[in-house]
Write a structure and sequence with these properties.
mainly alpha; 2 domains; about 0% strand
Length: about 120
C-alpha cells in the first residue's frame, strides 16, 4: 500500500504546484483525485485516500519550508489590510443610506477589490 501512495506522491510532484495559492491547492486536489480514481480495488483506494489525506494535511502545517508559504505574521498583515474594521463597515452602511442594495453591494465589492489589489502589489 505504501508503494502505491509513494508512487502517487512522486507522480504529483508538489514542487511544480504553487501550494501557497488557492489554484495550487485545487491543482493538488485534482491530481490526488485523479490518481485515486485509477485504483480499482475499493479497499485499497480507501486506505490510499486516508494516507494521502494525512500527507496533504501535513503539507499545510508547520512542517513546510518557510519559502513556500506566507508566514502567519504576513497573512495577518494582509488580512488587516483587506478586511474592513467594524467601524469602517458602519461608516459604509451609513453612507449607503437611501441607496439600493445592488448599488451598496457594488460599492462594497469595489472597495474590497481595491484593498486586495493594494495587498497584491
Amino acid at each position: 500500500m505504501s508503494d502505491i501512495v509513494t508512487q502517487i506522491k512522486e507522480q504529483i510532484d508538489i514542487t511544480q504546484i504553487a501550494l501557497s495559492t488557492a489554484e495550487g491547492r485545487v491543482e493538488l486536489d485534482t491530481r490526488l483525485n485523479a490518481a485515486l480514481a485509477e485504483i480499482q480495488d475499493e479497499h485499497l483506494r480507501t486506505v490510499a485516500y486516508e494516507m494521502l489525506k494525512s500527507w496533504r494535511r501535513s503539507l499545510f502545517n508547520d512542517e513546510n519550508p518557510p519559502h513556500v508559504y506566507h508566514s502567519s505574521a504576513k497573512v495577518q498583515q494582509m488580512l488587516n489590510t483587506i478586511v474592513p474594521s467594524p467601524e469602517e463597515i458602519v461608516t459604509w452602511i451609513k453612507a449607503a443610506d437611501g441607496r439600493t442594495y445592488d448599488d451598496f453591494a457594488q460599492e462594497i465589492t469595489k472597495r474590497m477589490l481595491e484593498r486586495v489589489a493594494a495587498v497584491a502589489h
